[in-house]
Amino acid sequence: MTRDLEKGTYIGLMSGTSLDGLDLVAVQFRKNGRTSLSFNILASETLPYNDEWHSRLGPSLFGGSAQQLVETHWAYGTWLGQQVKSFTDKNSLEKVVAVGSHGHTVFHRPDVGYTYQIGEGHAILEACGIPVITDFRSANVARGGQGAPLVPLGDQLLFGEYTACLNLGGFANLSYPHGTQGRIAYDIVPCNIVLNEFAQRMGFPFDEGGELAQSGQPLGSWLNELNHLPFYQEAPPKSLGVEWLKEHMGDFLDSQLLSQDLLATFTKHIAFQLFRALEPLAGMGNGEIMVTGGGAYNHYLIATTQSLLPSSLQLKIPSKQLIEYKEALVFALLAQRYMLGMPNCLASATGVAKDHTGGVGFGIKSR
User: Fold this and answer.
1) Residues in Cβ contact with 249 at an 8 Å cutoff, skipping those fewer than 6 apart
2) Is 53 helix (H, G, I), strand (E, B) or coil?
3) 97 and 336 Cβ atoms separated by less than 8 Å
4) What share of the chain in percent tops pLDDT 70?
5) Mean of the pLDDT values across residues 210-232?
6) What is the CA angle 335-44-340, rounded to 5?
7) Is 70 exceeded by the pLDDT of residue 60?
8) DSSP strand E in the chain: where?
9) Higher pLDDT, 279 or 367
10) How far apart, in whole angstroms, are the C-alpha atoms of residue 141 and residue 136?
């Protein structure tokens, strides 16, 4: 039984705060020595959200009624399950062990003791017929942790050859090994969740290659104010959410200045905060920083950040498949670890006392 769980196929689902769409990955894992794993991606796909789901998962959900939230939670779970069923049929995937679903984050306030990702597990299970693990974050928050980031376990087991792993998604986050402290990980700065907002004001879904930002003029006073927000002085572990963004960057986001200038300003802000986070890693390992997430395609952001870093640190852009599907890949891994009864959440990355297993299973027989 354990052998089947180790070598079987898992599906990972990821929906990020930037609302790009749903990422699906089917993958198998293999042991690669005692402390690492290799993986084989069998199929992958991104399903962009249509206008209805953009609206249902967007800002209106945060201020809506309790009934709206519950209805969306169940409807989204059914939709997720339907997409899994279509994905498995299309790719002739058989004997899938389990689905690991991140869900879509609506609230994340570990500072006051809660986090909430929608996508009801029972609904996913009924729509796809495959055992499901979801709600990976709540157990960690209940233990007093940040509930994030969870991907560093995958960074450690799958991508240990890099000095660090940097993900440029809705929020930018970093993970790296740090001797006896284990793997350090934390959110650095808001990223695509802000850049996409300003690009959309100009009629574009996102700032392709950073060209819009490059055409603008950074606003010095705003840049200085953003760079001095107290969060950036806090020690990890720490995490960010939409609530923090509204509270601490609301005036900047509501600014009526030219969107290309706001983009230029925030891109410089991201680059500076990435530099501050990465510069202490100089001299560690091989100096290679793997960059994934949609921000890896933002050539202007990457070039601006690289220009600030010492030459011993190099930003490395992996394959398109890893850029786009690394987080879904890791949630498949978290599902496998859950099925095996192994820890899938690192204490060093989230601030709890010890590594533990997070997630809630649906349709799973006794392990």
Assistant:
1) 190, 194, 226, 229
2) helix
3) yes
4) 99
5) 98
6) 15
7) yes
8) 9-15, 21-31, 37-48, 96-101, 104-109, 114-118, 132-134, 164-168, 171-177, 183-190, 288-292, 314-316, 360-362
9) 279
10) 10
Given pLDDT bands bounded at 50, 70 and 90, which one contains residue 1? low
Query: Which tokens is 261 given?
Result: 């200038």
**226: which residues sit within 8 A by CB, 6+ positions away?**
249, 252, 265, 266, 269
pLDDT tens for 147-186 read 999 999 999 999 999 999 999 999 999 999 988 889 999 9
pTM value? Answer: 0.93
Q: Residues of CATH 3.30.420.40 domain(s) within the chain?
A: 2-147+326-362, 152-321
Q: 11 near 130, Cβ under 8 Å? A: yes
Superfamily holding 2-147+326-362: ATPase, nucleotide binding domain (3.30.420.40)
User: Could you tell me if 118 and 137 are in contact, meaning their C-beta atoms sit under 8 angstroms apart?
Assistant: no
Superfamily of domain 152-321: ATPase, nucleotide binding domain (3.30.420.40)
Task: Provide the pLDDT for residue 122.
Answer: 98
